Amino acid sequence: MKSQGEIEAAVCDAVSRFQQEFMGRGPRNVHAHLIDNRLFVHMDGVLTAAEQRLLAGRGDGSESGADLLKQLRSRLVTAGRSVLESLVREASGASPVNLHHDISPVTGEEVIVITLAAAPQCRDRKKR
Hints:
Shape: elongated
Structural class: alpha+beta
Helix content: 40-55%
CATH topology: Threonyl-tRNA Synthetase, Chain A, domain 2
Radius of gyration: 16 Å
Distance between the termini: 20 Å
Order of helices and strands: HEEHHHEE
Number of domains: 1
Strand order of the largest sheet: 1-2-4-3
CATH class: Alpha Beta
Number of strands: 4
CATH architecture: 2-Layer Sandwich
Largest sheet: 4 strands, antiparallel
């Protein structure tokens, strides 16, 4: 049985692999926090060079680069959702039932909130 910290570290690794495979670039930093049956994943340094150029200019004139970035990332997460859920299931030992995603075009931070069917079984922390 894993500790809570080991589950969080495994989720960070899983999300980093997902980002690398589906987005073409892994995050510079990733942190996961397990609270009951919810996983909160925060990443920064996720924007690709192409996305940074898109944000510096405009889209096709009708939408800003920021809008296009948010749409693109949302669709990519949706397209790879089953893969991400499988990676999280393997890392946490619990089945994801819901997933929320957002990215800030201003800061380049990305968050994923995953609701699990049940809180993962964790071994108790050792008391000092």
